[in-house]
Amino acid sequence: MNLATIIDGHPDEAIALISRGKPTDYATLRQQVAGMRTGLIGLGLSAGDRVAIISGNNRYFAVSYLAALGAGLVAVPLNPTNPVVAVTHELGNVGARAVVVGPAGRAAVAAIDRSKLPDLEFVIGAGFCPEGGLGMEDLMELDDVEPAPVVERSPDDVAVMIFTSGTAGTPKAAMLTHGNLYANIRQSIAASEGDQGPADVVFGVLPLFHIFGLNVVLGVSLFAGSTVLLIERFDPMSGLEAIQKHGVTIVAGPPTMWAAWAGVPGVDASVMGSVRLAVSGAAKLPVEVAQAVEAKFGLTLEEGYGLTEASPVVTSPRGVEAPAGSIGVPVPGLELRIVDGEGHDVLVGDAGEIWVRGPNVFAGYWKDEEATASVVNAEGWLRTGDMAVVDDAGFLYLVDRVKDLIIVSGFNVFPAEVEAVLADHPGIESSAVVGVPHPYTGEAIKAYVVARPGMPIEEDDVIAFAAERLPSYKCPTKVWFVDQIPRGITGKVLRYELKQAEGV
């Protein structure tokens, strides 16, 4: 098998992608993917080699992704807005031999110190030819060259690595196999009873370096033969215009996106008249956001639940008439338990941690057996770290996080990672980070900082220092200077005291 074959079998003339206003039909997409696949193999890249993709949501990303999979390589999508330090670390972590760079990642890759990345041999520019690198269009040229066939892979072979915080502060590369991703596509289709098809146009604004955008928006849509309208940058007004112009039928995105649309003045329900399915995911959906969307556009937001390590969909409300506030029921083919601290099933109505087991559960964290063992037990159960309750009818409701995870616009942020960066600031003696409510991002990062004696330091200094070393969603937006950080007898930070002070 090979996940790249999800684009096969659809009518040649059917539109697969709309990128930057230009449509690409399935015949052309297959031709472009074959050209890129042949070029990657021609460079000498071998099955299992890692190829990073640093691009916004555009045709370049889709072609590179499918070509890498088809060549038997491991695709590693990275955030194109990450600072140079983070990009360098992630490329080095996975030992990437090649990187495909779109316009959004051009500056970051150009600033990389290549001497720190001995494994990196090829830099491929999408839409441009980088200095000392290759142009993607040249690599795809198939004149007088027989296209390389799709490389056969086992369901257990790794297809994608997605960086996630895992269960500790340092980002880890979660390994998702061809079987994992394909199984979750089939599970998602089954949960909706095959409701999505060739007539659908899907709004593709969720970042493709995020598993929700990669395997739910792009993967499911291409499997179903739908059209994906790729959006590189979200703007509420232009997004609504694009939905109306292209007759979008399915819109999926985080609560922040829906909240932004609900707040746009001077528009009515007609702008979303073509939308038949509205989905919220990547973070818990506030009730007030769902109510505002229904009042403004007449759309009922459906909320599911998932995580990177499950490829990602775990539950879905589709076809089961889930009550408001529920994340639905487990997708077909997935086992789910709600357990207490000792690993025993809880009673109906009691809160417990969600454990899942099935073909979509990931293969582990890259070169980190200890971290893998901490989340997947010997029986194959994935400990999600999320708390939920189940009602008498079997519907699930998210309650809270088991650990100290902060979710900003659907992205995981662990306090330890931010605190480790702040510890390098010469003017900071100690710090503690918590999540605080935010009307648009769900949560925001607030840092409590103890300054070193005699070292003057301002809030802006701390924020700027973090911004040079962390992605924007992990950076503190507020800094509070304190005399001491509350700690227990073992020295552990008492975050609940900080949260109580914030009223959360």
Assembly classification = single chain
Radius of gyration: 23 Å
The CATH architecture of the largest domain comes to 3-Layer(aba) Sandwich
How many strands? 27
* Biggest sheet architecture: 7 strands, mixed
> What is the number of domains?
3
**Shape annotation:** globular
Mean pLDDT, all residues: 92
Explained architecture:
This protein has three domains: 3-153, Rossmann fold, CATH 3.40.50.12780; 201-401, Rossmann fold, CATH 3.40.50; 406-502, ANL, C-terminal domain (GMP Synthetase, Chain A, domain 3). The protein is globular. The mean pLDDT is 92. It is of the alpha/beta class and 504 residues long. The strands form seven sheets. A seven-stranded mixed β-sheet has the order 2-1-11-10-12-13-14. It has a five-stranded parallel β-sheet with strand order 4-3-5-6-7, with helices on both faces. Helix content is 28%, strand content 25%.
